[in-house]
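Lab meeting, action items carried over

1. Structure of the three-component assembly. Owner: GW. Status: complete.
Input record:
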Amino acid sequence: MDKALHQRLPAKSKRKNNYRWKESIWGYIFILPNFLLMLVFTLIPVIFAFGVSMTDWSLLSAPTFVGLDNYVRIFQDPVAKITIKNTLVFTAMSVPLRIVLPLLLAVALNQKIRGLPFYRTCYYLPVISASVAVSMVFLWILDTNFGLLNRFLVIFGLDPVGWLTDPDVALLSIVLVTVWRGLGFNMIIFLAALQDVPEDLYAVADIDGANAIQKFFHLTIPLISPAIFFLIITGIIDSFQSFDLVYNMTNGGPARSTLLLGYYIWRQAFDYLRMGYGAALAYLLFFAILLITILQWSVRKRWVFGEQ
Amino acid sequence: MKHKKMLIILSALMILTLVLSACAPSPNNAPADGNQTGDVVEPDADVGEEPAPSGEETTIKVMSFFAYDNPEVEAGVVEAFEAAYPNIKVELEMVPFSDIFTKYKTLVAGGEAPDVISLNFENTAQIAALGALEPLDDYIASDGYDMSVYYDNTVEMYQMDGVQFAMPATFSDVVLFINKALFDEAGLEYPTLDWGWDDLVSAGEALTQDTDGDGVVDTFGYALAWWPMYLFLNGADVLTDDGSACALETPAAIEGLQKMVDLQGEGGIAPSRGDLAAQSDWDMFMAGKLAMYPVGPWGVQPFNDNITSFEWDIAHHPAGAQHATFLFGNAYAMSASSNNKAAAWEFLKFATGPAGSQIRQEGKYEISPVKEVAESEFLSSLAGAPPENAIVFMEAVDYAKNPPKSPYWSEISDAVWPELELALIGNISVEEALANACISVNSILEQ
Amino acid sequence: MKRKKIFRKILIHLLLLTGAMIMIVPFVWSLLTSFKPAGEVFTRSPFWIPWPPDFSSYERILEKLSFIKYAGNTLKISALVTLGQLATCSLAGYAFAKIRFPGREKLFLAYIATLMIPGSVVMIPNFIVMRNLGWVDTHRALIIPAIGSAYGTFMMRQFFLSFPDELEDAAKLDGCSPPKFYWHILLPNAQPILATLGVMAFQGTWNDFQWPLIILNSESKRTLQIGLSFLTSEFHTDWTILMAGSILTILPIIVLFFLAQKYFVQSVKLTGLKG
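Predicted assembly:
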């Protein structure tokens, strides 16, 4: 599509150089308010936190500089290892589910069916409920004896599961609640992305004889790839920082099976008063995600629409 | 276009509000230190409108969680204090218990610590050890303040290495709440001071029932208390006396915790971890599904408000090798960074002494550590409603014990509990759990 | 052919309905529980319908809390943050997506980088910044920093990427400068994504608890979530109050979401290919 139009544009002229310079100025102006705020209120504290990661700081007394000791400590801390392992497993399980399921939902809701606002609201409800309420409700749903889920299983003749009390299953429960909670959120994003896909493209594809599956994989997915990219990155970031559910539902238990990095960092910083160590853990996390993001970023031109 | 107009109006509004809010003077432009004349006074603490008499006026900031869901209680203490000390204004900030320590630590780190902070016992050791609290011995001595108005153990709770870091404001101890109706139905006598372990188990067995025959126990005889209870009952402790090493691998400790594990699970008298996941033991007791429940005086008001279907009372917790139970408490302390220490000290004395304590007790928040208030107001406030046996709260103080007073207590209990959880589920033995726990605990203590 | 279509539609509806039920079960339980008397939350089956409904939890909330005041505070903060994000994030997102300027990629990576540090670690540096600005115990500490949302800008950029370049090229041919393009062409076509960002920004601010708790001291400045936390008890979970509180806080968001529904659907369809 792009190529055809570009071939038809007039050759570059001197006027274009002026325009480019002018364009850059507009670019800077447009980002200025947002960037300034981001710089002062987000970026600077983040850099400050890096400095903190190289100190021993109990919060209640002045920090002392310790260089890279905190980072070394991470490798010696057996609980940190468990936490990192749990977090990786959690991410690997939740991120794909949080992309695929909402996408299918969004595609389904994008068909012209009735009751769209109703469905959208239903699916979005979990997103707007406060964390505490969601946690409490699921503590009840996942209860081993009286919980709704187990009662359901028993009706079908299956054995009840210790969703939150069996160390082998607890992390899966957190994954389920996380996916459940984020479903509506990602779905709305995909819905918005689907709106941007020109309808004629589908018409043309129909004429060419494409079936639904072909249309989906060769038309829909590429065109909404920027949104997919966005959700993968933010999904990974989000799951590495996951805190609310663990804090309200399990406190890392049973037997540390749901101890996730976001929660462990908070514990170290505020409970054990090792803010420096907490910051170091956070920065370790940061470098890991940065690596993943840079990898994704460098290949993005290959599959994300519009980045060429 | 309609869009254009709407967007213009919205953007204009936004810019206008931003500009206005950025330009509006901030009441907090004055630095936090130095004496301030009482400019921003908390609406809650507003009393009569007498103008302050001439003389130096100070303002102190007090951050408290005491009875935060009943804010009139502490506000009443502050009101009475300001009446007695007209030159001192108090900015009282109530913060819920679950969040106050995070906030306090953030404020201290940010240089905005309040002058007075409410603490619970568990957090005092850590916060004091890190130097955030002002030692109080000099103030007590130079004032000649009589500490004997308080129960001795409540004063001692807040001493680290012999230095007094906080003034006791409340205390509580854990006793056995019993569902009299369930006991009556089973034809059992109510627990007495003589009850030992066997009495507990046999009564528990008679009271644990599957009332609707579906294979799942509906009514439990007992619910587990916090795990250190079973160490104390057996004469053991978490750490050695000097707090330098893990004491969980002694025979007494292993035996005590084994008894705890045996009380629950298959054929047990107490709900297992699985049973407790959503319906806590608290909810079970309120629903009449639990016969014996170890809990403290904080249960009295809610139970009186909500339990209508059965009669309940309290009793001494049965003894193990000895009688034991928990002694908890809350206190007020002074931040080391305070710039109004003299005024803060006046507040500490008043708020924790007989005057302030009386008001707090009338508000029914826990039990006053001031002897005369506990023995009068507390007991009389309970008269005419359950528990009939309220005197047990006072009697239990004799054998009540603090959890360990280590600055690392939070981390230590986080190291022990996951292991005990595995033992409770049955994945590992108690010995193994405690061996693992001690490895972690000792490495924490070695820092 | 027609039967296949109807069958497909029924299947879709069935799946969607099942999913929707799963989504709202917890909400329904919250609603029912909020009307139960406190002692009876666990005495019967979870879905028993309390009749007549016990309003005492709601009464207690409205009585004990200056509900209107806190709701007003929260509304003001949320509205300002939302407007601020809509304006600045869309501008920046458009610039990062479509305008070429030196350093664009690096600056944008800085945005993404800031998303990766968990809140608990930056809370204290943030507090120190606020303290130095004299913004402790003010609403502006809650509003201004939230406007420069890296998340919002990231989202806007991704969406503007999929805007066909042709529109822009055609506009340039007509001598349309970036601001004109932004105002006349981009924004009107970006309704769904703007509505999405708007709802998210509003709801994120509305439900925010930790940061307002740390930064605010005065009772008069409290937000709704802080106010509600004062109804929870130190010692146990008071289910009916918790649920009543969460229902009260969700209601405005549901209303907002419903009102925003029509913006989620593209009013002006992009035609794409036509020259």
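2. GW to write a short summary for the group page. Key points so far: Residues 199 and 205 of chain A are 10 Å apart (CA to CA). The domain at 77-303 of chain A is CATH 1.10.3720.10 (MetI-like fold).
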